[in-house]
Specification:
Elements: E1 26-27, E2 37-38, E3 50-53, E4 57-62, H1 79-86, E5 100-101, E6 110-116, H2 119-130, E7 135-142, E8 151-155, E9 158-161, E10 170-172, E11 178-182, E12 185-196, E13 199-208, H3 215-222, E14 248-256, E15 261-265, E16 278-283, H4 287-296, H5 323-334
Protein name: RNA pseudouridylate synthase domain-containing protein 1 isoform X1
GO molecular function, one term: pseudouridine synthase activity
Region (Disordered): 297-326
Length: 342
């Protein structure tokens, strides 16, 4: 069923997602210096939204279809260019991009992204990610029917897809061409049932308990409920009439560093007032209540002897750190100061 909605793509395939002007609706109030951010307009240099700021960290509400940084796409907007435009005084000349991004979001994913403003802060944030002490939660709209279980743990190991024509994509263990699958866990809570452009969809809160590439998108697809607008992990039939964006949003982020607890909650972009195509009809779980639970939950305990540890000593009864693990860790830390040609 096709319903005309502002900003909806007609006949676009992969790599051709564009948004018509549609209706400009402004999202939330930024924490500090910022332009207002439209949910339907493409990202521009001017429309950066900051939801948390301290002496050591920024958390920005990244726009959908926006690269974090790029050495090849120099003429397109990137988050790095937005930060340089709004915060030139915070750019670090000792780094190639000027800013230290503590983690990644896919090009098509919007939401909370943490930026460290100095090397010490970057190291403390990295330690939290390494020890799995970071709490993250995402909002998504899932297509092809309603998710039947209101709560579930998705447990599919994820590996790289070696199938011809599927380079740079991931897959679940047991599928053809799946290489080196690793354990992957995602918690799912159904928030609402409704229709998107006339098709039945579920609005869900997703909490990744591991950090695999494309984990949430792969797990949703494995349930036969891919994310609305996902051109990579949705079926080909989904690409006939795509929405203006992929409906996956990094909603909540908490990084408990030793010096401060970085915590940010971004505005929910998947509400009817901001997207006329989304029409919820059944409330299953209140998002506000889940936010209170997230905020009140204790930080996860550090994972002792976790893979990738940068420690020089070996804890008792723990397997020694491999050269590959140590090299990977040191490469991550060195990227903040290396010049592009080094």
């Amino acid at each position: 069923m096709l319903v005309h909605c502002p900003g909806r793509v007609r006949g676009g395939g992969p790599g051709r997602r564009t948004a018509s002007p549609g209706i400009c609706v402004w999202v939330g109030q930024p924490h500090s210096r910022s332009s207002e951010v439209s949910t339907m307009e493409p990202g521009r240099i001017e429309n950066l939204s900051v939801v948390y700021q301290s002496q050591d960290f920024l958390v920005v509400n990244k726009h959908w279809d926006l690269r974090i940084d790029s050495r090849m796409w120099r003429e397109t907007p990137t988050l790095q260019k937005q930060l340089r435009h709004h915060f030139p005084e915070l750019a670090d000349p000792d780094t190639y991009y000027g800013f230290r991004f503590c983690h990644q979001l896919d090009f098509s994913t919007s939401g909370a992204l943490c930026v460290a403003l100095n090397k010490a802060a970057a190291g403390s944030a990295y330690k939290c990610f390494k020890e799995r002490r970071v709490t993250k939660a995402y909002l998504a709209l899932q297509v092809r029917g309603h998710v039947q279980e209101s709560r579930m743990t998705i447990n599919y190991a994820i590996g790289r897809n070696s199938t011809e024509g599927r380079a740079h994509t991931m897959c679940i263990e047991g599928t053809q061409g799946c290489e080196n699958p690793k354990p992957s866990l995602t918690e799912l809570v159904v928030l609402e049932y409704g229709l998107y452009a006339g098709d039945p969809v579920s609005k869900v809160l997703l909490q990744p308990l591991t950090g695999r590439t494309h984990q949430l998108r792969v797990h949703c697809s494995a349930l036969s409920h891919p994310v609305v607008g996902d051109l990579t992990y949705g079926q080909a039939s989904d690409q006939e009439d795509q929405p203006f964006r992929m409906m996956l949003h990094a909603f909540y982020l908490r990084i408990p560093t030793h010096a401060e607890r970085v915590e940010a909650c971004t505005p929910d972009p998947f509400v009817p007032a901001l997207d006329a195509c989304w029409s919820p009809h059944t409330l299953v779980q209140s998002l506000d209540q889940l936010v209170q639970v997230l905020r009140a939950a204790p930080d996860p305990d550090p994972t002792e002897g976790s893979p990738g540890s940068c420690s020089t000593s070996t804890p008792p009864n723990k397997p020694p750190e491999t050269e590959a693990q140590r090299a990977s860790c040191l490469q991550w830390l060195s990227e903040w100061t290396l010049e592009p040609d080094n």
